[in-house]
Design brief:
The protein has 244 residues and is of the alpha/beta class. The chain contains 9 helices and 10 strands. Strands 3-2-1-4-5-6 form a 6-stranded parallel sheet, sandwiched between helices. It has a two-stranded parallel ribbon with strand order 7-9. Strand 2, helix 2 and strand 3 form a beta-alpha-beta unit.
Length: 244
């Protein structure tokens, strides 16, 4: 159940037109929160998300926005969430930009560090992304071999890994204005908010059959934004939400 929070926040969502991003927009608006959404097409976006007094839509590609426009988008936000992903078409996987997720999260962090206010950063990855801190269980040889091949053959795989590694290694835990969490859901499926649990490390291998509804991922991310206890619990971690 989506509960209305008494806490008032402003969240910038990158990839707001995507299947998970739009659910996060909907859930935050349902909780009377302010949302800024960066989308390629306002017209397409409003076909799925109606206009709202709490919603500010910024049209343009994240990496193509002028510096001043991107700074304005981040300014005043309590949180920035990246739900960006590559289109699973040949052009989307092998065309430009090859480093969409990594370059976007770097741009976000640069703006936050140059600004005045501390900001939460939430990056949506996948359970295929290993935590660079080395605390995940060692994958079987077959899975490690497959991931190595995918890094070479499917550019979005390495992009997702590099984005998480940037937060973990380059931003780390000692930047004054940036706190971060990387969310690594199990295989994404459609469905409504339901019972789910959040694991510290992936509970199964790549072929373990774990699944997470996109609505549950959005629910967990909204909880990170609005619930200080949830944020403190998972701060600088890479939690894995998974359906029960």
């Amino acid at each position: 159940q989506i509960m209305v929070s008494s806490k008032k926040t402003t969240t910038l969502i990158l990839g707001a037109t995507g299947n998970t991003g739009r659910r996060l927009v909907e859930q935050l608006l349902d909780q009377q929160q302010n949302v800024k959404a960066v989308v390629r097409s306002k017209e397409r976006f409003h076909e799925i998300i109606p206009e709202s007094n709490n919603l500010h839509v910024i049209e343009g590609a994240v990496l193509d926005l002028k510096d001043e426009d991107f700074q304005d988008a981040v300014k005043g936000c309590d949180a920035v969430v990246s739900c960006l992903g590559h289109n699973m078409t040949f052009k989307g996987m092998y065309g430009q930009p090859r480093k969409l997720c990594t370059d976007a999260i770097k741009r976000v962090c640069e703006v936050i560090q140059a600004g005045e206010n501390p900001t939460k950063v939430v990056l949506m990855g996948s359970n295929g992304v290993a935590n660079p801190n080395g605390m995940d269980n060692v994958r079987p040889f077959g899975e490690r071999s497959l991931i190595s091949c995918l890094r070479i053959c499917v550019p979005p795989v390495k992009d997702n890994e590099d984005a998480a590694a940037f937060l973990s290694k380059e931003i780390g835990k000692d930047k004054e204005k940036i706190e971060w969490v990387v969310v690594r859901p199990d295989d994404l499926i459609e469905g409504e908010v339901s019972d789910y649990e959040v694991l510290k490390i992936p509970g199964a291998g790549l072929f373990g059959g774990g699944q997470t509804t996109r609505a549950n991922v959005a629910h967990f991310m909204s909880d990170l934004i609005l619930n200080d206890d949830t944020w403190k619990k998972w701060l600088f971690e890479m939690p894995v939400p998974t359906n029960i």
